[in-house]
Design goal:
By secondary structure, the chain is mainly alpha-helical. The chain is elongated and about 50 Å long.
Length: 58
């Protein structure tokens, strides 16, 4: 399993947001970006939850 890069995920979410906010982006593309953002957000939450558990264990 590859290591999750939180900073990269956040940067990707920022790029997705810019694309979604761009009036030139088509509705089909917006749907694709929203699904991608949902997946990334879920992975970020999982990562933060695991970090919190590690910190609490210290």
């Amino acid at each position: 399993m590859e290591k999750f890069d939180y900073k990269e995920a956040v940067a990707t979410l920022e790029k997705i947001l810019a694309k979604v906010e761009d009036p030139a982006t088509g509705i089909d593309d917006i749907d694709k970006y929203v699904r991608q953002a949902e997946e990334l957000t879920s992975r970020c939450r999982e990562y933060l939850r695991s970090v919190r558990e590690k910190v609490d264990a210290i």
